[in-house]
Specification:
The complex is a heterodimer of chains A (137) and B (355).
Chain A lengths: L7 E5 L8 H12 L3 E4 L6 H10 L4 E6 L4 H14 L6 E6 L3 H9 L5 E2 L5 H15 L3
Parallel strand pairs in A: 1-2, 1-3, 3-4, 4-5
Chain B lengths: L10 H8 L3 H12 L5 H8 L7 E6 L6 H14 L4 E7 L8 E3 L14 E7 L6 H16 L3 E5 L6 H5 L5 E6 L6 H6 L2 H4 L2 E4 L7 H20 L15 H8 L11 E3 L8 H18 L1 H28 L1 H15 L5 H16 L1
Bound molecules: guanosine-5'-diphosphate and magnesium ion.
Chain lengths: 137, 355
């Protein structure tokens, strides 16, 4: 069809913390980079995130986790995705996550995680690169 | 479009789709939305039993509360144990080609209900592609077996009028802030609405908007009676509500008088009445025979859409046509041709190729 397929990404904000400025900044940055961004708002449970990811048939889920609960949230979402046959979806994200934890999560099959200082363009470049090597449908 | 059988790589998702798997439906929608190879065959394979589902469209300006109302209405239908598909369309940014699809923000209460499937779509702009693929996605949901499909339009410009051709019942959602009844008339909403909802009934100005809308509808109803067409048949124009209404007034069953309701989508006030009214419209569609007419008109539009898209695809994928295009450009610049002579050559070539 000539033009490339749009990449669909779910930007998700799990947990109980009460603001989503960071998630909105990320969502807008991906939109401006030509992505179709599904944004679902605050207080998402892992079940809500996975259900939205599957129905929307996104390529990528990006979670913004600032609450410190990353060691439970990322593995939980990954496990649910795998369980429901959606292991083709890249799970990535960012937040205040110590180096050691990043390494451990990567071992569990979770994609690159971005710390507080990183620019959104790094995340965008990473997702584009990942997509270009995996696209099938 | 030759084989009419799904291409092998779609077999797995097709099987999932037919077994009622959510993953299968989700993937099928992407194949259709992205116009992947063989998407027409996929649609052809699943659309075997004709339209079954009840289709309700929600349109109106951005911020009027369409998503909130869809969520409230969906909750109420779940109480009646209906299975629901929801399609929500948001605009593609003309600058980046990206889109921020935010309708689910209002639908979090129903997000994990296994009886509800929500899909967000971007308009993806160009060439009327929006209408075609939105209608195709609704067809997929219909074939998947939902009792009802709710379609939320973007709410800006021309597209929403097109998307309403995907619905049996069109609910137009307005709010006091969105302007007066005159603006609604100018936007063509009088022709499109089966039901008006003035949402945010908690805001000042709601009663006045209700009154204005009723007056405007009353004026239109008077005019309609003088406009009864002399004869009728299966006519594509029937997808436009105005003609359908005047047509129905010829028959035994009385025409549909467009009601104006009020809701507060946040508290759920007025939602039961909206459900009742949607049911009443459904009964009217069935009893008056309008539903059959509407579906036939819609089929006509769908056929035309598919042919238009195929013709474009065939034309602009053809080397010969692209050669003639270049040649035409040269002829125009040297004063030996016009866009019409060039187009004529192209059409001749296409028809010969196909003959
Ligand atoms: N006060 C009030 N606010 C409402 C009502 N319905 C929706 N809203 C708010 O209006 C805003 C836009 O609603 P949304 O459903 O996203 O509108 P859409 O753009 O038409 O889909 C949101 O902040 C809603 O919470 C209502 O009945 N009353
Ligand atoms: Mg909306």
């Amino acid at each position: 069809m000539g033009d490339e397929r749009k990449i669909r990404i779910l930007v998700a904000k799990p947990g109980l913390d009460g603001h989503d400025r960071g998630a909105k900044v990320i969502a807008s940055a991906f939109r401006d980079a030509g992505f179709e961004v599904v944004y679902t708002g605050l207080h998402q449970t892992p079940e809500m995130i996975v259900s939205a990811a599957i129905q929307e048939d996104v390529d990528v889920v990006a979670m913004s986790v600032l609450s410190g609960a990353h060691m439970t949230l990322f593995p939980r979402v990954k496990a649910l995705l795998d369980e429901l046959g959606a292991d083709h979806i890249l799970l990535t994200g960012g937040g205040i996550i110590p180096e050691d934890d990043v390494a451990e999560l990567e071992l569990e099959g979770i994609g690159r995680l971005f710390g507080p200082g990183t620019s959104t363009s790094d995340a965008i470049a990473y997702v584009k690169e990942w997509f270009s090597t995996t696209d099938e449908a | 479009m030759k084989s009419k059988r799904p291409v092998p790589e779609h077999q797995v998702l097709l099987q999932g789709f037919l077994e009622g798997s959510v993953l299968g439906l989700a993937r099928a929608i992407s194949v259709v939305e992205n116009e992947r190879d063989g998407f027409q065959d996929l649609l052809h394979t699943v659309m075997t039993s004709g339209p079954q589902t009840k289709r309700v469209g929600f349109t109106g300006p951005p911020g009027a509360g369409k998503s909130s109302i869809v969520a409230a209405v969906a909750t109420a239908y779940r109480g009646l144990e209906e299975h629901l598909g929801i399609v929500a369309v948001d605009p593609t940014s003309p600058y980046s080609g990206g889109a921020l699809l935010g309708d689910r923000i209002r639908m979090n209460d129903i997000a994990t209900d296994p009886g509800i499937f929500i899909r967000s779509m971007a308009t993806r702009g160009s060439l009327g592609g929006l209408a075609t693929s939105t209608k195709e996605v609704v067809d997929l949901m219909d074939s998947f077996g939902f009792d009802r499909v709710l379609v939320e339009t973007v709410g800006v410009g021309q597209t929403e009028l097109e998307v309403t051709a995907a619905a049996d019942t069109v609910v137009v959602v307005l709010v006091p802030e969105s302007g007066d009844a005159i603006q609604a008339m100018k936007a063509g909403l009088m022709e499109v609405a089966d039901i008006f909802v003035v949402n945010k009934a908690d805001r000042p100005g709601a009663p006045r908007l209700v009154k204005e809308l009723r007056q405007a509808l009353h004026l239109r109803a008077g005019r309609e009676l003088r406009d009864i067409p002399a004869h009728h048949g299966v006519d594509l124009g029937k997808a436009m509500k105005r003609e359908r209404m005047s047509d129905a007034s010829e028959q035994e069953v009385e025409g549909w008088a467009v009601p104006v309701l009020t809701t507060n989508a946040l508290t759920g006030e007025g939602v039961d009445k909206l459900l009742e009214t949607i049911e009443a419209h459904r009964r009217w569609l069935v009893e008056s025979g309008e539903l059959g007419e509407l579906r036939r008109a819609r089929s006509g539009i769908r056929i035309r859409d598919v042919v238009d898209r195929e013709m474009r695809r065939i034309a602009w994928n053809s080397e010969r046509v692209n050669g003639l295009l270049t040649q035409g450009v040269e002829e125009i610049s040297s004063g030996r041709g016009t866009p019409y002579s060039a187009a004529d050559n192209i059409l001749r070539a296409l028809l010969q190729d196909r003959a």
